[in-house]
Amino acid sequence: MSGNQNSQTIKNPKPSYETKEKGPELNDRDRVNDILAMEKYLTDSFNVSAREASHPALHEDILTVLMETHRCQYDMYEMMFKKGHYKLEGEQQAKLDQTYDQFRKYATQFPYSSQLQ
């Protein structure tokens, strides 16, 4: 987004109880960020476990836990966004269209591209 003069930052305000100066003590953001990092680690680990599971029932159980972990990770991200700890950069429609067209052209090179459309 750098260089785009018309970019739009999408963010929420940070909670008023958070100080601008960060000291060595853990605050709410630190705690939730730690939980988010743990959830990301767990989803990575459960993805590997799901691929490696050799028993059908075990595979299904791992997939169930994996989906729950993905939901928890997303919930942590959403909470951090709502509390102003994450921001998004908006993009102009022309740039989105250009990127979409670029990847749509790549898809025509796939061996089974007719099945993807």
Automatic annotation (TrEMBL):
InterPro entries: Spore_coat_CotF-like (IPR012851). Residues 1-11 have a biased composition (Polar residues). It holds the Pfam family Coat_F. Residues 17-31 have a biased composition (Basic and acidic residues). Keywords: Capsid protein, Virion. Residues 1-31 are annotated as: Disordered. It comes from the Bacteria. This is Spore coat protein.
